[in-house]
Design brief:
This protein is α+β, with helices and mostly antiparallel strands. The protein is built from 13 helices and 19 strands.
Length: 426
């Protein structure tokens, strides 16, 4: 659990980044309608949560910056017994004043009035342009007569790039739960199951062990379905002798995990499956050893493409020189995605990958990213030797960059052929 002291420190850091004579506003997420008058389970705006740790809707943080110093105000829902009867208890103004280290707490109904007051002597307004809510619409209108309006999202997302010890601890807790779910899937007698049954097992284990939810829609892709990268139908029967690619991770206290394992449905890899699988695994291990501060993700991508291309030549799937195949981009046919992405409060963190000048941001200690090489060999692709058609493999782990290298946070989730086969027969 992250303490209020850390959230307050983040708010102070953001306040220092704002230009003088400015106001910055970040709003909570709005409830999303599922159908008619029913809603999806509420999930807080990640940037708002990063600065507050507050999970309620109808809330806002306001930063008022003068020349050098500034103040932070929180706006929350007022207590309303009749509304709480139907929708549940809210913190309220009195309790919020005790909980949060801010300069003032007001009712959310006073937000527009107070903003007009704050903006009378200010030149700039910061808010999240892409966060489309009633709150952002109001902010857009208020900024029409100001000298400058700036997008606050990029500033906060850049702050989120480097994780604190407490953030990494939450990711580790999530991975411990995700490990239970993946190992359970490896042990199961899967032939004849529906993909959605395996998906249900994952979601059950996540919730049973205290995870907020899945971090994204679980992918359970049997056989050739694994060659659809974001396959989420999960409605086909798992067949003996095929592989199943499972891309699943829980969200623990708002922090994501993202793990992919590819396992044999009947418990044992065939010779062809093992050849493709071990190629991907060798590549992943080499990339994991490369990660350290100062490394560029684009260099990791180039190395991955080179290693996979070389491996495909060795398997007889590609013909020709590795150099020429790389120059012609042939690997993109069977490995079309990147080596990984930043991860944190969002499974695909929207952190900036480049500086304002367009220069790629190098890895630095505290960044958390996924490492996920893969090979996707569609059944209908006649350029592939028949024995490899219909095989799709991805192996994905979650890694934190350290001062001298990196740590694979998900190292204990089985991925060696012998480990996976042993779990099935245990």
């Amino acid at each position: 659990m992250i303490q209020e002291k850390e959230y307050a420190k983040r708010r102070h850091k953001l306040l220092k980044k704002l230009k003088p004579d400015s106001v910055a506003v970040i709003c909570s997420a709005e409830a999303k309608v599922r159908s008619n008058d029913t809603h999806y389970p509420y999930r807080q705006n990640s940037n708002f949560y990063y600065l507050s740790g507050f999970k309620e809707e109808n809330a806002a943080l306001v930063f008022v910056k003068r020349k050098k110093k500034g103040k932070v105000f929180l706006f929350v829902q007022e207590k309303n017994p009749q509304k709480e009867l139907w929708e549940g208890k809210v913190l309220g103004i009195k309790a919020a004043k005790k909980r949060f280290d801010v300069d003032g707490v007001y009712a959310i109904g006073k937000l527009e009035e107070k903003l007009k007051e704050f903006l009378r002597t200010k030149e700039r307004l910061y808010f999240e342009f892409s966060h489309k809510t009633k709150c952002s619409a109001m902010l857009d209108a208020l900024s029409s007569n100001l000298h400058t309006k700036k997008n606050l999202s990029k500033t906060v997302e850049k702050m989120r790039l480097v994780k604190s010890k407490s953030e990494i601890a939450l990711i580790k807790k999530g991975l411990a739960i995700t490990k239970k779910a993946h190992h359970n899937a490896m042990k199961k007698k899967k032939a004849g199951m529906m993909e959605y049954e395996l998906q249900a097992d994952f979601e059950y284990i996540f919730k049973k062990h205290g995870a907020y939810s899945d971090a994204y829609t679980t992918i359970v892709a049997g056989g050739d379905n694994a060659n659809t990268l974001h396959y989420i139908k999960n409605d086909k029967k798992l067949k003996s002798g095929e592989l199943v690619l499972i891309d699943a991770g829980c969200e623990y206290d708002y922090y994501a995990t993202d793990i992919t394992r590819t396992i044999p449905i009947s418990g044992k890899f065939t010779k062809s499956q093992k050849e493709v699988y071990e190629l991907v695994l060798r590549v992943q291990k080499k990339i994991l050893k490369t990660i350290r501060p100062g490394v560029l993700r684009s260099d990791l991508q180039k190395k991955t493409q080179k290693l996979l291309t070389k491996g495909l030549v060795e398997l007889g799937i590609f013909k020709g020189s590795v150099k020429k195949l790389l120059k012609n981009g042939k690997i993109k046919r069977y490995y079309p995605h990147g080596i990984g992405h930043f991860m944190g409060l969002d499974v695909h963190d929207q952190n900036p990958y480049k500086t304002k000048k367009g220069k790629e941001i190098a890895l630095q200690a505290g960044m958390v990213l996924t490492v996920e090489p893969g090979l996707y060999l569609p059944k209908k692709d006649k350029k592939i030797p028949k024995k490899y058609r219909g095989i799709g493999v991805r192996i994905e782990d979650d890694v934190v960059v350290t001062k001298n290298g990196s740590i694979n946070l998900s190292w204990s989730i089985a991925k060696e052929v012998e480990e996976i086969e042993a779990l099935y027969s245990s």
